[in-house]
Structure formats: C-alpha cells, structure tokens
Amino acid sequence: DIVMTQSPDSLAVSLGERATINCKSSQTILYRSNNNNFLAWYQQKPRQPPKLLIHWASTREPGVPDRFSGSGSGTDFTLTISSLQAEDVAVYYCQHYYSTPYTFGQGTRLEIK
Amino acid sequence: QVQLVQSGAEVKKPGASVKVSCKASEYTFTGYYIHWVRQAPGQGLEWMGWIDPNVGDTDFAQRFQGRLTMTRDTSTSTAYMELSSLRSDDTAVYFCARGHGDSGAFDIWGQGAMVTVSS
Fold first, then answer.
1. What percentage of residues in chain B have a pLDDT greater than 90?
2. What share of chain A is helix, strand, coil (3-state, %, to 5)?
3. What is the C-alpha separation between A99 and A94, in angstroms, rounded?
4. Over the range B51-62, which residues count as b (16 or more CB within 10 Å of their CB) and which as e?
5. Do the Cβ atoms of A39 and A104 come closer than 8 Å?
6. Contacts with B110 (C-beta within 8 Å, 6 or more apart), sequence order
7. What residue ranges of chain A have pLDDT lower than 70?
8. Cα B108 to chain center, whole Å?
C-alpha cells in the first residue's frame, strides 16, 4: 500500500499570510504515460464531509478560490494557501488515487494565529 | 443540484451488520464510480472501497475482506454499503463519494452516516 505522510500535523498562520502543507507518498504517484500525478487535496470543516479542492496535484476544482494552489510531482507535493482567510480554518487531507487502496494522509489542522 | 444523500444514523451491537444507502441525484448514476470512506471519531479518513454502478464491479481495501459488501440499484440510483461482524472500532461516520469524471478523486460527497457499535 502507498503511505501518504503529511507535515506538519498542525499549523497556525496569521490572517493574510501564507500557509503551506506538505504531503509525501511512499512511492511515486506520477503515471508517466500521461504525466499526471494521481494526487488530490481535500478540505474538511467540522461536522462536514470533505470538499475536493485540487486533483491531478495542481488542478483546482471549479469554484475553489485561486488562493489555493497545489504543486509537486512524483512523491512530494504541497498545498499552498497564499493569503489565509478566516474561512480556511479546517483540516486538510492529501490522497492518492494511483492504485487501490486509495489512502489519505493523516490530515493537517490549520488554525489562525 | 448534483448530490448524494445518505441514510440516517444507526446503532448496532457487536457482531451485527449495518447497511448504509447513498442515493444519487441530478447526474447519470451509472457513469461514475461510488466510493465509500469512513472516519472514526476525531480521526482521519479511511478509504474502504468502490463500486462501478454500471456493471456492479467492486474493489475494496484488504482489511475489510469478508466483511464488506457494496451493491447498487440502478433503478433508484442508490448505492449500498453493508459491513458485517461489527466491532466497536467500526464506530465511525461512513461517507459515500462520487469518483471524479476526469480523475480518480472524489468530487461529490454524501453528508455521512454515523454508525455506532455498542453493547
């Protein structure tokens, strides 16, 4: 199974500042035949289901603010929130969908400093 | 709008089974995989398996071998997840989610169904 490891486990950032969350997979999730990284990022607020923010490592879902961006390739990935807003307080998860089982990272809790 | 609506909360005794439903609306049910994901209280997300509503094929995490059954009813656009031989550590919120049309990510989620296993 591919293990997804996020860092840090929790993060406190001031409003308007940049937040960066890292995700590392135990093996590559880059599918070379189409050069796509099989990596998604989700945001989960309390008592809500997760919300898909980004797939293919860097493709934002429609309606997701452009302050959210994803980057990385192979085994190392990053979710960046360029200017933190109050409504961004949540737990963020990375997930691979390269092969089953589709595992998630353990989550990163993002708070306001 | 496109949505998945799940059945309500359940309380079960150890050893029993639970069946959770997930009704799709406003899209072609047979055109997208349905995944099942669970989340124990205060914990992270755990992928359980998927079903292809078109043909009924399934795949699931090995840890649920022999306990997990995923089915669908195309006439009602509803997917079902049944977990048997319940244990206390099966207490969790169970989500269904739609597989994204372009990628394997999960773009639409049900609201979740709380399953409590307690004697």
1. 95
2. 5, 50, 45
3. 15
4. bbbeeeebebbe
5. no
6. A49, B4, B5, B6, B22, B95, B96, B97
7. none
8. 13
Kindly provide the b/e burial profile for residues B71-83, where b requires at least 16 CB atoms within 10 angstroms of the residue's own CB. Answer: ebeeeebbbbbeb
Residues of chain A contacting B35 with CB distance shorter than 8 Å: 102
Distance in Å, alpha carbon of A91 to nearest chain B alpha carbon: 9
Question: Percentage of chain B surpassing pLDDT 70?
Answer: 100
CB B43 within 8 A of CB B90: no
Q: Is B26 on the interface with A (CB under 8 A)?
A: no
Position A27, amino acid: Q
Size of interface A-B (CB pairs under 8 A): 64
What does chain A come to in residues?
A: 113
Which pair of structure tokens corresponds to residue B81?
């997840």
**Yes or no, beta carbons of B35 and A51 under 8 Å apart:** no
Q: Which amino acid is at A24?
A: K
Residue type (1 letter), B71: T
Mean pLDDT (chain B, rounded): 97
- In order, the DSSP letters of A33-85 are TTTEE-EEEEEE-TTS--EEEEETTTEEPTT--TTEEEEEETTEEEEEESS--
Give the C-alpha separation, A108 to A44, whole Å. Answer: 10
Does the pLDDT at position B103 exceed 90?
A: no
**Would residue A74 be called left, alpha or beta, if left means φ above 0 and alpha means ψ between -120 and 50 degrees?**
left
